Amino acid sequence: MKEFFKELFEYNHLVNEEFIRCFAGKEAGIPEKSVRLLNHLINAQQIWNCRIEGKKNSTGVWDIHPLTMLEAMNQANLDESLRILKSIDLDAMIAYTNIAGNAYQSSVQNILFHVLNHSSYHRGQVASGLVEAGIEAPVSDYIAFKR
C-alpha cells in the first residue's frame, strides 16, 4: 500500500508542477478562483503533513503565494509526504484540530487518501476555470501519468 501511495504522491506532485508551469507568464489572465484553488490544495497538503507529524504549521489554508514559492512548497510537500510514508504506520491514529477548532482523530492512511482526493478535486476546478478563460489546462489524468 505504501508503494501505491508513493506513486500517487509523485503523480500529485508532477501534475501540480504542470499547473504551476501553466500559470507562469500568464498571471494576469489566470482566473482568481483558479489561483486561489491551486494555492489552497498545496497549502492543504502542507497542513495535513504537519498534522500527521505533530508539527506547528504557519501556512493558512487560503494563503496566496508567488509561483516560485508554490513550486518550492510543492516539492517540500512531496518530500515530506514520502518521509511520512517511510516512517509512520498507515494505521496510526492522528489527533488533530481542524481550522474550525474541532478535535478529531483519523488514520494516517485516511488522511493521505484525503489529501490526494482533495487535490484532484480542486485541480479539476482549476482546470475548468482555465478552460473557461480560454487557457489550455494541463492533462491531469492519472492514467496519462502511468503511460
Quick summary of this structure?
With 147 residues, the chain is mainly alpha-helical. Helices cover 65% and strands 7% of the residues. The chain has a two-stranded antiparallel ribbon with strand order 1-2.
Based on Cα principal axes, name the global outline.
Answer: globular
CATH topology: Four Helix Bundle (Hemerythrin (Met), subunit A)
By CATH reckoning, the class would read Mainly Alpha
Main sheet properties: 2 strands, antiparallel
**What share of the residues does DSSP label as strand, in percent?**
5-15%
Helix content: 55-70%
| Number of continuous helical runs | 5
Please state the second-level CATH architecture.
Up-down Bundle
**Rounded radius of gyration (Å):** 15 Å
Helices and strands, in N-to-C order? HHHEEHH
Structural class call reads mainly alpha
Taking strands numbered 1, 2, ... along the chain, how are they ordered across the largest sheet? 1-2
What features would you describe in this structure?
The structure is a single chain. The chain has 147 residues and is mainly alpha-helical. The chain is built from five helices and two strands, in the order αααββαα. A two-stranded antiparallel sheet has the order 1-2. A hairpin with a 5-residue loop joins β1 (93-97) and β2. α2 runs antiparallel to α4. The radius of gyration is 15 Å and the shape is globular. The mean pLDDT is 95.
